[in-house]
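Structure, all two chains, one model.
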Amino acid sequence: MNTGEIVIAGNPNAGKTSVYNRLTGAVQQVSNYPGVTVEFVSAQMRHGGQSYTVVDLPGTYSLTAYSQEELVARNYIVESKPALIVNVVDASNFERNLYLTTQLMEMRIPMIIALNMVDTAERRGYKVDAAKVSALLGVPVIATVASRGRGIPELREMCVAVIEGKISAMPAPVTYGHAVDEEILALVEAIGGHADLARQYAPGWMAAKLLEKDEAALAGAHAAAKEDLAPLLALADKAASRMERHFNTDAATIMAEHRYGIASGVVKSCVTFTAEARRDVTDHIDMVVCNRLFGPIILVAVVAALFFWVFKVSDEWAWVPWPGGFQSPTSLVSLLFDFLSGMLTPLETHAPMLHSLLDAGIIGGVGGVMSFVPLIFFMFLFVAALEDSGYIARVAFILDRPLRVFGLQGKSILAFIVAGGLGAGGCAVPGIMSTRTMREDKDRLVTMLVTPFMNCGAKMPVYAMLIAAFFPGNRTLVMMTLWALSWATALCAAWVLRRTVVRGEQTPFVMELPPYHVPIIRSVLRHTWERTWLYIKKAGTIILAINIVLWAIMYFPRPPEGTPPHERLAHSIAGRAGLALEPVTRAAGFDWRTNIALIGGFAAKEVVVGALGTAYALEQAAEEEHQSLSATLAALPDWNPLRAFALMVFVMLYAPCLVTVAVIRRESGSWKWAAFATLYSTGLAFTLAVLIYQAGSFFMVK
Amino acid sequence: MGDVARIVRIQDKTSLSLRRRLLDMGITKGAVLRVERHAPLGDPVQIFVKGYRLAVRLSEARTIEVEPIGTAETAGAES
């Protein structure tokens, strides 16, 4: 047990993360899309020379354990037995938020209610009497406006007072009406007979869960108790059927309705309506944004604007002042790495091996990845602003129907967008993590399996290099083709998967559409930075390590003295592996050097360009002039646009990178799906690449 | 559009997971809801219940039995 631990629980969009940030001064993202906290984070809250651990749980509407997030939140509270729960309640959405409060109260842990967004509630014409709520529920209630820091010092002081035992904050017992309460009382007594069970779980809570036939709680009970639980379960079953006969519906519904009864009772006695509820800004915006005619037009316009803006700002417009003239952010990063590479030149004659490692292995590899940081940053900036405004939830609303045709659903769209579905770079890792807001089910699994097809930032260096070499005049056209192809593949794959390996009913869509608000710059920047940082971190760690390993297997064993430069690579470990695969990969037009790069790309696709660069740079004799990889490839006789295109398609679709595979494993809960994702996408990628190459060759010969 | 109704019940044949989900989101007996608008392709539909906006598919909405109570503008205020 952790003495003094505080957990923050509440509905999605209740301002939970803002409260957390304000209490701890931490830099956790806040966003206006239901369910942004995909993993819980913790930080220290300091007060009066003391330090307290604060844990931000995922936002949930309930604790019935029907989704991953609910289960995570609930298990955390049950297992860590925190000293205090801070329940963030959205005052402007009071009744539904109180439903979770009643469930938290059942867990018998001291609680403080942070009655958040009281300003919004007042603007909408409600006034919540905090003192009355406190008297009814038996816990301290502090009114806050967390986004502006209002009420936070009071909340912090209250937390400390409760932990130190100066103020009692044990919630009032939850009552479900006479008939149910009696059944619970009898069960609590029976649970008392199992000492281990009663110690691990609050007996009243466990009794309620047994009546609801909550499977996760049942499994927990079996694990906690040493004895046979059959008599207890039989008792619970009988009690549940008595209730069901009495109320003529299932026990879980009865319990839920009684919880709402408590919530609406609190609303009736604590909320005064100061003004008539009127149509607000959100209604007016929705009228246009979700309109039959304008909705789709606006959606297309937003996507087009994003596409245009991201490329212009990050790459095409030279707007960053720099000695020697204005530069675009992307070229600035390239300049930096060119400069580093230039500094290494003196090494070339004195320590050729070290120079090769640093220049070809590290700077070449990592530099190629880093030059896409500006693109990814601006892309995430735009998406974060849209998410924070509330628009992405509307995109899910608008696109649910068309996506359903493919066995997906509206909520899949966020995963696709974050993974690069807008065609301007992204990352499948946060994309797959965002599927946690979907329920534990088939829709989510299929979304995870096809999300890696999106054009993430890792694929951009490969596209950029090959487009520069073979399609210099048609950059936009090729990018659009690749974008369309990634979507077509993802949708078709989802359609097929849903009819073969992931069969099953579609799950409910039921989704909150949060009110619109102007994006908060600070939170958008934080959110953007966090996602971008994941990309940079990957470049600095995994990619760097793989580049070094790849360089080593391409450099060693050293060929005998006097081997001509162009035969040296073939002598290395990587060269031999690449050559061994060549008979197969020739069908798609890939030679053995490309194979080396693609093998490296299994770890992370950013590696492909670096590895190709190393492959050709190692072959290049010192006497040849250094030129860019694009220029090198364009000049080679055995490379042509068709081969480049087949390679781009293969890179787009083949095995997700190692980090993504690990995330699929974690999120799907089994290696089976992680292995499946790797195999089916590689098979699909190779088939398509071969088709494109063979069909293309056929027509080109003609 | 803009129709206000009181929820009578969630149909018995509704799957347990959908029923729970609807309950979690405040679709309970006696609550008042207002149909706000349909998505551009007619489905899903946006409803206003317990003071907030909820998107549900038509197939899901059909499992909610309601009795119409007019077209008042203030449906969200009570419940």
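The longest helix of chain B spans residues 16-24.
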